[in-house]
Amino acid sequence: MMTTHLKPSISMQINVLMPIYKTNLEWVQIAIESILYQNHYDFNLVIVDDNNPQGALKEYLEDLKKKCAYVKLVRTTGNKGIAAALNHGLSACTGDLIVRMDSDDVAHPDLLSQHDAYFKANPDHHICGVGISLTNGSETWDKNHPKYMTRAMAYKFPGHWFVNHPGVAFRRKAIQQLGGYPEVSPDLAEDYALWVQFLLHGYTIYNNPEILITYRVHPAASEFAPDRKSKVWHKFLYNQRELLYEY
Question: Would you say residue 7 has pLDDT above 60?
Fold first, then answer.
């Protein structure tokens, strides 16, 4: 059910960035509601309609934009992959912080308030991930990562998954400095490419261990089964990690 509550008239500080393409309408509604009912009200929700072909979903997003003044709806002219969609959305973001949200996940009510408190308490930190609870509909398990990650640590880290993309927050000025997401092929890891850029620019990546996102794992998904990934995917990760080597 769509919310119609009004947000206090205060300056915007957080932009929640959510790209959408061919996502189940019910899941989109649940994901959006989880943002609209946050206990922190100082935010905009920036939705990127990545040339989604579903009429019912387009109608829902248009109706949402009309009813909620703090929802920004931007569209791409052609589907070029999630990295391009995210960069399109970044151009519409104006807040101090940008929080990533997927269109089929659920944000816990204090996701934004925790990020707000964290970055106010740590003015020298520029990116922070959160813990997630993964669910495939029948079982649930949690995923946390190291408290922080430096360039040297990431180069030696066994694997590439040291921060969760859903729920991560970064300062807008920092990602502007990086030029946004590296626009890699849609079937590659645009999130890992971004983490590498943060590390190469001298930033440390931090993680809040609190479970603040429920992440939906789809039956056909292979992101948690690296042995089912293509050679191109593995080569991409290898080449990205090699960028972190310090001579």
Answer: no
